[in-house]
Amino acid sequence: MTKLPKCEDKKLGLLIDLDTCVGCHGCVVSCKEWNSSGSEKQLSDINSHKRDPIGTFLNRVHSYERENTNTNETETFYFPRSCLHCEDAPCVTVCPTGASYKREEDGIVLVNEDDCMGCGLCAWACPYGARELDLVSGVMKKCTLCVDRIYNEEITPEDRVPVCVKSCPTGARAFGDFNDPNSDVSKKVKERGGVDLMPEMQTKPVNKYLLPRIKSKNSQVSLSKGAEEETDSTGLLGWVDRALSKL
Amino acid sequence: MHPAPSIILFTVLSGFGFGLLSIIGLLQFFSQISIFDLIAFSVLGIIFSTVGLVSSFFHLANKKNAIKSLSQWQTSWLSREAISSIFCLLLVCGNIGWVFLQNMYIKELGIVLFFLALFTIFTTSMIYAQLKTVPSWNNILTPSLFIFAALAGGAILLTNNASLVILLVFGTLQILFWYITDQGFNDKKTSIGTALGFDANEEIRPFDAAHTNRNYLLNEMVYKVGRKHSIKLRYISFFMAFVFPMSLILIFPGEFGVSILVIFLHLIGVYFSRWLFFAEAKHSVSFYYE
Fold it and tell me: Which class would CATH give B5-289?
């Protein structure tokens, strides 16, 4: 049913650290690979080895630049974009067939492909462009939070995370329960101030982002200064330093 | 948004069909329509609304599941639209059947038909008006414009002075709607800043493309091709849908032959209006790409 459940138990989602992401697209590739193999359900490509290829992806990595007002320099950052598994998911309520639904037990938003008629309205309702209609199968595709991995007892426990998290070489992606205040993701959100995307759309996303920290004007200088202080604290120069400081 | 011909035809033709049925219902309630007209125009209404619905069917990428769209009326406007249009068409068939059998109509049935047909047009418009992601649609002008565009068609065929009033309201709503369209996201908080989790006025520029070719999102929701001709198309639409029909009705009042020409011009004008409705609408996902 397309009525949204309460999800009082668990709210599973991703925490993405834009300060750490290097834009390697590893998550994009591994996501595509995992969701295209092992079953009849594919993320299809058209013209994959010809001109003008077009294909379905559940995850896209954008790159942006902005001015650092402290240093007057332009800084680039990378931005992975995928389904945020919103608490008030507008993509679910607009669905006419009941194919889109949000799981009560963990809050994951899914599409039942056997019910989808490919009208595309859910993709229009999503502010974030998280849903793409598969042009070959004619049904809507979206991030499943690797529901076929995270509860899969056939694979080793350390692999029971979304494949984008598992494959991220920099550890920019974390997976966990945002409803549990003691989970790693909740702690990090609290510590670093995790943010919602487009909060004005009132979708209440479960996934959170950690924004790139603004580098201070003296970040380079203070690093080397710290190193000097440490080496200077012993030996003759250290003694001179301390003696002069006392004067 | 991508102006898909199947969707434009669907909203224009089924809008005209249900608008016509709605006007028939109103005239039936006030006993202002002959039995011949009631049957003839009801059949016309059924044909147009059905052609529109069939056209929307061709928009579906997975047609075999279309029947399931009748199931989610509790939350989905698209589902409500499907159910409401079926009930409305059944009512019209019943209405015609009764007239055939009894050679008279039940005028009370007219008011039911009026509201049910009106509600069907309203559900169509709410498919778009419900989307917060497209601010130019997400307001009361969308249902108002859809309803009056639909009623204008029926009124041109079946009434004289009432059609002038309805056209005047339609023309006014159309201008207001284009004004709102031009505002886009201006008075909303959404920007590239909020799209990425920053403050609304954070200055951020795209650095490199996220993918080397187009994708479903760009084809469907970041449609820009038609916007450069939008002012010319607005003039064409406004003259065809509003100015010419108004003038012709004023010059040749009550001439049925003229109203056939007027309805033809009007529908072409509404088609342009609906094309612009989609082509000019800006979706929030475009912030990630600009």
Answer: mainly alpha
